[in-house]
Design brief:
Length: about 210
């Protein structure tokens, strides 16, 4: 069996003196999709931000490829893609400029590839329109285009279905499945009724879960 990419051991997080989760342990294996689920305010975004290294207010251990994540920070960051629950794009820039900026911090990617990714998310013809002039769903699609050029093995995706139409939802579901089939691992929070074959679940807001 493959080694886990990411492991959480007895994670605990409290916010405003309210315990969001405790004794939360799970392993994220290559080739899997895991859905983080639970009612509003139960800590899904908080958990994803902790896993992504954006929130240090937790107790417990996180392991990356079997070793303490904090000692493997560079490898962890290089191999992890996080998309937050806001599209995280710059409204004054065009979709093409946004993608260029997002990839500049990662690796060189030519405009042909970026344009192909934008076309793949249904944005052909909008590549050079300032994002502030795009709809909410189109702005989300700019962020999602990043997935089409991602080579990071671990994806942490927070509410990526928000504002996306039915066809788009189907395309994202297929993409997540394909990523897992290629050996990647996907952790996704969503209120959308995501049902993928073999999908794991981490449920917040009740008893602590293990998977
Ligand atoms: N910026 C903040 N400062 C202080 N507390 C916060 C902040 N953001 C969230 N919280 C608290 O943390 C709790 C968990 O929030 P979080 O966004 O992780 O929940 P969620 O499960 O993702 O919710 P939703 O389904 O509504 O997106 C909230 O109930 C809120 O009380």
């Amino acid at each position: 069996m493959s080694e886990p990419l990411l492991q959480a051991v007895n994670l605990e997080c409290e916010r405003d003196e309210r315990l969001l989760f405790h004794n939360l342990s799970f392993s994220i294996l290559p080739g899997t999709v895991t859905r983080v689920e639970g009612p509003n305010g139960t800590g899904k975004t908080t958990l994803l931000r902790i896993l992504a290294g954006l929130n240090d207010a937790y107790a417990g251990d996180l392991l990356w490829c079997g070793q303490a994540r904090n000692r493997q920070r560079e490898s962890f960051l290089r191999n992890t893609l996080y998309l937050g629950h806001r599209p995280g794009i710059k409204p004054l820039l065009t979709p093409l400029e946004n993608l260029r900026a997002l990839m500049a911090a990662r690796r060189p990617v030519g405009d042909d590839t970026l344009l192909q990714a934008l076309a793949g998310t249904g944005l052909a013809g909008f590549e050079n329109v300032p994002c502030r002039n795009l709809s909410a769903g189109q702005q989300r699609r700019v962020a999602l285009a990043r997935l089409l050029i991602a080579d990071e093995p671990l994806w942490l995706l927070d509410e990526v279905f928000t504002a996306i139409d039915a066809d788009g939802v189907g395309a994202i579901e297929a993409l997540l499945q394909q990523r897992a089939q290629e050996g990647g691992a996907v952790l996704v929070t969503t209120h959308h009724d995501l049902q993928l074959p073999g999908m794991n679940r981490i449920t917040l807001g009740g008893a602590a879960n293990e998977c």
